[in-house]
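Researcher: I need the complex structure. Ligand is pyridoxal-5'-phosphate. Inputs:
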Amino acid sequence: MSYPFAARVREIEPFLAMEVMERAFELERAGTPVIHLEIGEPDFSPPQPAIDACHAALDAGQTRYTDSRGVRELREAIAAEHTRRSGVAVPPERVIVTNGTSPGMLLVFSLLVGPGDEVIVPTPHYPCYPNFVRYCGGTPVLTRTEASDGYRIDPDAVRSALTPRTRCIVVGSPANPTGAVQDAATLRALAELGLPLVSDEIYDGLVYGDARVTSALTVSEDAFVLDGFSKRYAMTGFRLGYVIGPADAMRPLQVMQQNLFISPNHFVQRAGIAALRHGAPAVAAMREAFDRRRRRIVEGLRELGFGVPVLPDGAFYVFADARAFGADSRKLAFDLLERTHVAVTPGVDFGEAGEGFLRFCYARPDAEIETALERLRGALRRR
Ligand SMILES: Cc1ncc(COP(=O)(O)O)c(C=O)c1O
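Model: Output:
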């Protein structure tokens, strides 16, 4: 095309986990099966009541637009669930349902960030956070967290990165890619810095051992919680998420939703209601399997020579130091895909702080994890 594209498009970098997956799909189309440890997607089916509710909703003709904020029943169910999990009373008026957590992120960053603004993003980070910030004309300010410190966010480091242009602080806990869970004292100290927390709690419920998630709502009334059904309920393809925000933010979020997305899908919202009401046993079974796989894959990766100093507490990823096998994580990941047909995500997807690492998603069947470890054993050569 002979016309220029808008400059903001150049501000967005490719999502490498998706790029690896798309190359893996090409291999599969050509007849080579791939073990998918790259993408953050549970191998479990969604809770059966959610599937049944979706079918029933389609049969009942629930195929039209809804209130832009989502149907009242779902907002009530989300508010009740968050109240139960966090202990903070959340009214349904502070919930807006979105077509996945990612559109929720777009709404919140669009609300808070404009040209010239800055956003604190602890790193290694979920790849899309800085892209959303740049898309809105802002600058992500990356503050490093370290494996040796369990990837704890240091509130003092965040404080020294603040400027008059800082608009919000992003927290992902449990985190992608590190699995780190931030403790209540850290969240409280971050909230005391006096800026809104944008708290991605999509992996809440997927924590192991003694780890407990602190919702940002317990430490701040000005927090924005981003959450959704993709991970906890294994409903990635349903595209269902939500934002819980401060009361005065809800109207502008609603107006943006009306214009940008109109409303979330009605029959998918019905599935969400059923997942919240009846999905707990499915979530518990999944968590138990993930806990077992987490231990196994960490043990296997350590045997192969990867650095995994601490067992990750939450989510379903291991962020493994792969520098024994190569400094360039992108090259290493694509090379492993071509040679072993095991797909993993390059650490550099999660920022420069992740270079030299690989992210392994263990939300895959036990047998696949064993085969993947076996293939890696045959292919990896220490430098
Ligand atoms: C931390 C984090 N937030 C958000 C998302 C996107 O979630 P959704 O499928 O609800 O858009 C992901 C997906 O990998 C994630 O890891």
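Model: Summary of the prediction. The mean pLDDT is 96.
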